[in-house]
C-alpha cells in the first residue's frame, strides 16, 4: 500500500529537527500550568482502564509527564529521529515507531490514548480514518485526549531552529474537531479553550484547544 505523502514529509521534517527540538521543548510543560492541568485530568479519568498510548509522542516529554502521574503509558511516533531523542531522554519508557493512520495494535487493546498536537499534521480528508483507527484500538469506555491549535486556515512552516523542512499545521475549531470525533463514534466529556499567549518562553499566536472524548461503554 502506498504511503500517504503527508506522512513522508512529516517524518522527514521531524527527523531533520529532532535533536534541536528535543532541547528546545524540554522544559515546555514546566511553564504551562493549563496544559499540566489538562494532562492531570486525563490521567485521572484514564486511571485503571489499561494501557495508554501517546500517539505522535515526539521526544516523549508528555509521555514521561503522564508516567510521572502514574499512567501505564508508552509512546508511538512516525519519526525515528524523534524516537531516538525520546529513548535517550526517557530510557525507562517504551517508544515504538508507527503511524496513527494504521496503528499496529489489536482491536480494543488500549484503555486510553492521546494525540497531543499530532493530528495537526493530518489533512482534513484523512482525519475520519485516523479517528476511526483510534476508536478501533480503544476499549469501550476508553478516553481520548487531543491538543491542537485553533484556527480556520493551515500554517505552512519551512524553517525553524536553524533547519529547513516542510511541515503543514492544520488549525481547526473545537466544534469542527468535535464533530469529526462524534462521527467516528466518540462522545464528548470535556473541552477547553486557552486563549493565545504572546509572552513567555513559548508564545502562542493562536488559541489552543483541548478535547477529551470517550468511546461509549458497552451496554
Which sheet architecture does the biggest sheet show? 7 strands, mixed
What are the segments in which pLDDT stays under 50 over at least 5 consecutive residues? none
Share in helix: 25-40%
Span between termini: 36 Å
**Radius of gyration, rounded?**
16 Å
GO molecular function: methyltransferase activity
Domain Methyltransferase: 54-142
GO biological process, one term: methylation
Keywords: Methyltransferase, Transferase
Structural write-up:
This protein has helices at residues 5-25, 33-46, 61-68, 80-89, 127-137, 174-183; strands spanning 52-55, 73-77, 95-97, 110-116, 138-149, 155-160, 163-169, 187-194, 208-214. The chain is 34% helix and 27% strand. The protein has a 7-stranded mixed β-sheet with strand order 3-2-1-4-5-9-8, with helices on both faces. The longest helix is centred in the N-terminal third of the chain and has 21 residues, at 5-25. The protein has 6 helices and 9 strands, in the order H-H-E-H-E-H-E-E-H-E-E-E-H-E-E. The chain has 219 residues and is of the alpha/beta class.
Features:
transferase, 27% strand, Methyltransf_Superfamily, alpha/beta, Methyltransf_25, 219 residues, 6 helices, methyltransferase, single chain, Methyltransferase domain-containing protein
Secondary-structure map with pairings?
Elements: H1 5-25, H2 33-46, E1 52-55, H3 61-68, E2 73-77, H4 80-89, E3 95-97, E4 110-116, H5 127-137, E5 138-149, E6 155-160, E7 163-169, H6 174-183, E8 187-194, E9 208-214
Parallel strand pairs: 1-2, 1-4, 2-3, 4-5
Antiparallel strand pairs: 5-9, 6-7, 8-9
